[in-house]
Write a structure and sequence with these properties.
Blueprint lengths: L1 H29 L17 H21 L6 H6 L22 H21 L4 H30 L24 E4 L2 E5 L18 E5 L2 E4 L5 H9 L11 H9 L8 E4 L2 E5 L4 E3 L10 H10 L7 H9 L53 E7 L14 H4 L7 E4 L16 E3 L8 E2 L3 E2 L1
Parallel strand pairs: 8-11
Antiparallel strand pairs: 1-4, 2-3, 4-12, 5-6, 6-7, 8-9, 9-10
Helix pairs in contact: 1-5, 2-4, 2-5
Length: 441
């Protein structure tokens, strides 16, 4: 009886989380004036209208037969909105707005799918075994949507201000500028990944299997590299010095005429920063959001390196006593005391603003305020098994062309701040809310 009651409680909690995730993405689309929903703010991505249909199509394709035992009512849209685009170097999508269905048609499809899912999911009766499968699939639907809540945010970031419904900025946090310094991290272990036997915890396929890595002693930047520090690199000719760049990165930078971070603009001889709804004078104490290529060049200029995934874990979750924490600050669940995350803000905050969130070693802002690039190529952990229902989620990107990023940004949901979560992008992708810190070994 108690087990059945617990299953029902978990079911209700997950359905509530699914509805909250929908509200988050609905709000994002409401920030775009309807006449601009067919724009493509980032050349490598689909038009915005695709994502209006994609989020429901993904949930429907995932759950329709596996959980609800339903047949489709619009197979054309199920297929049209099924898959996004990996932002690859090279060929760009060439579709036109006229190639897509009308907004009314897409919204009608979304409405039908939501009603069918809500009615079906609420009516499912679960036993313990079926409950595990149901929980996993619904968690996939929730986190997939929340990932898009972040990718949509940085897409809309690149949309002209006049195309968006402007929202007032939150009062800016004012903190004393920090003094950059490094912290010594003693040798120890870093536990990467989740244990497969922990069936009460959700993880994506690339998070398994848990394993320990020995990490030699190293030094790490206490704070993420700021716009002030990155400006010094630029003023020192960092974008003109080929010796600082890997060969492929220099070729990319030259071919695309990359001369500054994508979030920066030069206006009347002064650097400005593109926030979601307006340009502001460059906030020197905010973390520098750049591509992996740009972060690597900066690290070389500074005589340092980007951390490996294991080094980042050691600095974030390790302790001087040799134990490990679920979060940098300890065991408490993420909340606004510990960092800038979970959709609290559109923009970064000055580095060092959340001292309560620092790690046991005193490293600050490891979770929230900007993902952090690592030097680790995205690859499977030992014991990796792809999801049977989503075999390409991770495996399609084990190609040596993607790098792991860790931590989270202001637009990262709290549930994805777990220690084992891994994100990844290609080295020449500038648009993600990703900064970095450096290490010396």
């Amino acid at each position: 009886m108690l087990a059945a009651q617990h299953t029902v409680e978990v079911q209700h909690e997950l359905l509530a989380r699914l509805h909250q995730a929908r509200a988050e993405t609905d709000c994002l689309f409401d920030h775009v004036k309807p006449e601009f929903l067919y724009e493509r703010p980032i050349p490598e991505r689909h038009r915005i209208i695709f994502y209006v249909g994609h989020l429901e199509a993904f949930d429907w394709n995932l759950l329709r037969e596996r959980v609800l035992g339903r047949t489709t009512f619009h197979s054309e849209f199920d297929n049209l909105f099924a898959f996004g685009i990996d932002p690859v170097d090279g060929g760009l999508p060439t579709d036109q707005p006229s190639d897509w269905p009308s907004l009314d048609q897409v919204r009608e499809y979304v409405s039908q799918v939501r009603h069918a899912l809500d009615d079906g999911l609420a009516a499912v009766t679960l036993n313990d075994r079926a409950g595990q499968s149901w929980n996993q699939l619904v968690n996939v639907a929730i986190e997939h949507r929340l990932m898009h809540a972040e990718t949509l945010a940085y897409m809309l970031h690149q949309l002209p201000f006049s195309h968006k419904v402007r929202k007032p900025r939150l009062p800016e946090l004012v903190v004393r500028p920090v003094e950059p310094r490094m912290i010594e991290i003693p040798a120890g272990k870093a536990t990467l990944g989740l244990e497969r036997c922990q069936t009460n915890l959700f993880g994506w396929d690339n998070e398994y299997e848990a394993h320990a890595v020995k990490v030699p002693a190293f030094s790490v930047d206490r704070y993420e590299v700021t716009n002030r520090e990155y400006l010094q690199f630029m003023n020192a000719g960092g974008y003109e010095n080929e010796a600082l760049w890997l060969e492929a990165d220099w070729k990319w930078k030259t071919q695309h005429n990359i001369s500054h971070p994508v979030f920066w603009n030069r206006v009347d001889g002064e650097w400005q920063y593109r926030t979601m709804f307006e340009n502001v004078p460059l906030p020197l104490d905010w973390p520098a959001y750049v591509s992996h290529a740009e972060a690597t060049a900066y690290a070389r200029w500074a005589g340092k390196e980007l951390p490996t995934e294991a080094q980042w874990h050691r600095a974030a979750y390790g302790t001087p006593e040799g134990t490990e924490r679920p979060y940098p600050w300890g065991i408490e669940a993420p909340d606004s005391r510990f960092g800038n995350f979970d959709f609290e803000s559109w923009d970064p905050t000055p580095v060092g603003a959340f001292r309560q969130g620092e790690s046991a070693f005193g490293v600050v802002d490891l979770v929230g305020n900007g993902w952090e690039w690592t030097a680790t190529v995205f690859a499977p952990f030992p014991g990796f098994q792809p999801f049977e229902f989503y075999p390409g989620y991770s495996a399609n990107f084990f190609d040596g062309e993607h790098f792991v990023i860790k931590g989270g940004s202001a637009r990262t949901a709290a549930c994805m701040l777990r220690r084992s979560f891994r994100n990844w992008f290609q080295p020449h992708y500038q648009y993600v809310y990703a900064g970095f810190r450096c290490v010396r070994t």
